[in-house]
Design goal:
The chain is about 40% helix and about 20% strand. The chain has about 325 residues and is an alpha/beta fold. A six-stranded mixed sheet has the order 7-8-12-9-10-11, with helices on both faces. It has a three-stranded parallel sheet with strand order 1-2-3, with helices on both faces. A three-stranded antiparallel sheet has the order 4-5-6. The model has no long low-confidence stretch (mean pLDDT about 95). One of its GO terms (molecular function) is tetrahydrofolylpolyglutamate synthase activity. It catalyses: (6S)-5,6,7,8-tetrahydrofolyl-(gamma-L-Glu)(n) + L-glutamate + ATP = (6S)-5,6,7,8-tetrahydrofolyl-(gamma-L-Glu)(n+1) + ADP + phosphate + H(+).
């Protein structure tokens, strides 16, 4: 809350032309919600922070819907049906315009390319073709569609077509540290801050699509309020064919689950006990993973570091990013 207040004070002093404010947790009760947003953007809703936000997507959607202000404009990613209904009802209740991905806008086409993907988007006011998005995964193409629609909503109420070259230049310059980010080669080390089952599923699908690994070593650390079993199950289901060796670790965060306590979740997900290593120190975990990835001089081996933002952040630091 204090940092949010300081941010708003800085924005007022500048002053800024446009503020893009990301909610910290939930929506309606978050400190950022003091802002009177002209456009409310809701990304895909899934189960997360259930101890605070509720046990169903409807409960969580109700929290998120609190950022939709009277007379504003809702731009929503594709949502579970129950979540979409909650958002729609809130928008109608406060007299907000609303547009949903998959109905009024979305991804028209996408092709995997070196360093990312080339996409064509249908916006609220026009089509934007052959855009390079230097990020991996279908979810990042959908994020790009939501971002473009949000700009269209903000600048022209969804009725003003943007200059394609401006969109092209903007997306070409996009970075997303810690999201399917390659932080080292030989062996390739990819970090992704997925910390719930939906995020793990998206990351795993992105790896399957964009990389050609013969085998993958997993380094994973998870925070105590997260669905560890669900995260590990999603990774095993999507990457089980190449994902054998697993190193359970932890970050320095006091909220980290002790590495050894993740063992049962890993076994339940389908990982073989003989392929699981426990290394509470992240530096030791990375060293072990590199050794495993380079076994038998396998040049197509890689490493995925995931499970929490704190683990990925510390891994990036250790690897010089």
């Amino acid at each position: 809350e204090c940092v949010t207040i300081l941010a708003f004070a800085i924005f007022a002093d500048e002053p800024i032309d446009v503020g893009v404010i990301e909610v910290g947790l939930g929506g309606i009760t978050d400190a950022t919600n003091v802002g009177d947003g002209q456009v409310a953007v809701v990304t895909p809703i899934s189960l997360d922070h259930t101890d605070l936000l509720g046990d169903t997507v409807e409960d969580i959607a109700l929290e998120k819907a609190g950022i939709i202000k009277p007379g504003s404009f809702l731009v929503s990613a594709i949502q579970p049906r129950d979540a979409a209904q909650v958002l729609l009802e809130r928008a109608r209740e406060v007299g907000a315009e609303f547009r949903f991905e998959g109905v009024e806008f979305g991804v028209e086409s996408r092709t995997v390319a070196v360093g990312g993907q080339v996409v064509s988007l249908t916006g609220l006011a026009g089509r934007y073709g052959d855009l390079l998005v230097p990020l991996h995964g279908e979810h990042q193409a959908e994020n790009a569609a939501v971002a473009v629609a949000a700009v269209e909503a903000f600048l022209g109420g969804g009725e003003r077509r943007l200059e394609t070259e401006l969109i092209r230049n903007g997306l070409r310059a996009v970075t997303s540290p810690g999201r399917l980010e390659v932080v080292r080669t030989a062996p390739s080390i990819i970090v992704d801050a997925a910390h719930n089952p939906a995020g793990a599923r998206a990351a795993a699908k992105g790896i399957s699509e964009a990389f050609d690994f013969s085998r993958l070593v997993l380094v994973i650390g998870i925070l105590e309020d997260k669905d560890a079993a669900g995260i590990l199950a999603e990774l095993h289901e999507e990457l089980g064919g190449i994902l054998e060796d697993v190193c359970l670790t932890q970050s320095t965060s006091p909220r980290s689950v002790p590495a050894a306590d993740l063992l049962q979740a890993a076994l339940a997900a389908g990982f073989a006990e003989e392929n699981i290593n426990i290394a509470p120190g992240l530096d030791d975990a990375l060293e072990w993973a590199v050794m495993k990835a380079e076994e038998n001089n396998d040049l197509a081996g890689g490493i995925l570091v995931t499970g929490s933002i704190t683990v990925v952040g510390e891994a990036r630091t250790l690897l010089g990013k």
